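Hi support team,

I'm opening this ticket because the web form for multi-chain structure prediction keeps timing out on my end. I have pasted the exact lines I submitted so you can reproduce it. The total is 561 residues across two entries, so I didn't expect it to be a heavy job. Is there a limit I'm missing, or should I split the entries? Thanks in advance, R.K.
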Amino acid sequence: MNTRGVVAQARTELTLTLRRGESLIVTLAIPLGVLVFFSKIDGTAPKGYRSAVDFLVPGTLALAVMSAAMVSLAIATGFERRYGVLKRLGATPLTRSGLLIAKTAMVLALETLQFGLIIGVGIALGWHASIGVLAAVGIMLLGTVAFAGFGMLLAGTLRAEATLALANGLFLVLLFLGGMAYPLEKLPAFLRDLAKALPAANLSECLHGVLSHRVGQGFPTGSLVMLCMWAVVLPTLAARWFRWEE
Amino acid sequence: MIQTSDLAISVAGLEKQYGATRAVNGLSFDIARGELFALLGPNGAGKTTTLEILEGYRKADAGTVRVLGLDPDREASQLRSRIGVMLQEGGLYPGLRPLEVLRLFAAFYDNPVDPQELLARVGLDDAQRTTVRRLSGGQQQRLSLAAALIGRPELIFLDEPTAGMDPQARAITWEFIQELQAGGVTIVLTTHLLDEVEALCDRVAIIAKGALAAIGTPRELMSQSIANEVLFTATPGLDIAALARALAMPVDSVRHDGDGRYEIRAAGTPALIRSLAEFLDEYQLELGTLHANARSLEAVFLQITAETEAANVGS
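Hello R.K., no limit was hit. The queue was backed up. Here is the completed structure from your submission:
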């Protein structure tokens, strides 16, 4: 494979992501806004947390993964498909795997930027920075694979406008059903059961498990198992159903 | 006799079906290396499907296809570094600037053309600060052409390269295409602008209903279709009745479209041409173009495609 081509493709993907104002709002402004806003609200933190920010840092990291790997990737890829960019790239020596590597590199670079900002702001807000950095990185990679799989599934099967609407809509729904800004424990029972089956809550639960000093709770193994399942199922469905032309 | 190794493209018995529609139905033709070849046909005739099979986008249902000696379906990865493709529309990132597009594509090839130089060649160096989405349709087409050429391909596929261009951009594009041909590149294109094809292409295939209806040089196709008619352009508003008398013909055998184009419905014998010339000379009128007995490629195209339609209706 032509490494120079893949590097140029990855750089282009990142340039375009950073050039789209709406992508910066959803990937940077919203996670940071949620972190700052809810840290100032009494009663955000569920039982067992020392402060709101201790609950919010893992939650907004999960939100960041969802925004980069699902929303931003899906919308960009959906419109690339609409404008025939994916088709045109298919006639160049850049292979499909080269394109996927470039897109992965773009998502990971964007996430690195997001994580730096969230952790920096979190520490400034008094986050009791915690254990388990390596485990947290592993979990976020797993979450990235699951959400990127879902993003590509949307982008490769729906019209670009539908992808745009659905990715943004799900982002909002999962923000509230993901245990990210609002604890799962406070949801009505039927919503809580639904939420716990979805990858957003699986990811945030796992991150809470390794990044928070929670009193009286062990690591949520069930959530990790579910997250692994999503990380296999969603990319598999995307690979199965993705269509390069709209 | 054309040797197999001299062929850029060889298509034999090609078939492609979408659901109940037969898009391509037993198509066969060869294109020699270095040719400037046009694939013509009404919309829905199977041109784009054929191009997309040659480009490796689609799998043929039946038949043999070789592009630069390779199977575009199974040997796609070897083929992609040797061909250039211009899609009918789109294919460029709307958010990039022209030079960024060409730099990206340049990175995919081993020995690319300098992007800056190529941008100037297609007349886009004054649009450097504009993103693709703000370029005019014609400018986007030229950028798309440049992207097809950046990897120094041996063979390029151009799907309606001059669609949506103003006459000046079209002239630049054709000049450029001819330079490429002079450099040994094989060019396969589709277009609806038959006057361009008549003047510039080496050979033409007319496709109708997914099958080959005619193939040859524009001159061959035009001379196959002899018509008893003389077409000429001159000053608008000639006295048609006087002309018909001078030609010793009934008045309704001369027609004028009101715009200076005249049609005489009779065999263009030397005597008739002499009478016409004498008439124009007597009234000191300008003669523009003069076609005797040969139809324009456009007229031939319309005739052939209409015959194919009629044959299909009849069968």
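A quick check on our side: Chain B touches chain A through 26 residues (CB under 8 Å). Let us know if the file doesn't open in your viewer.
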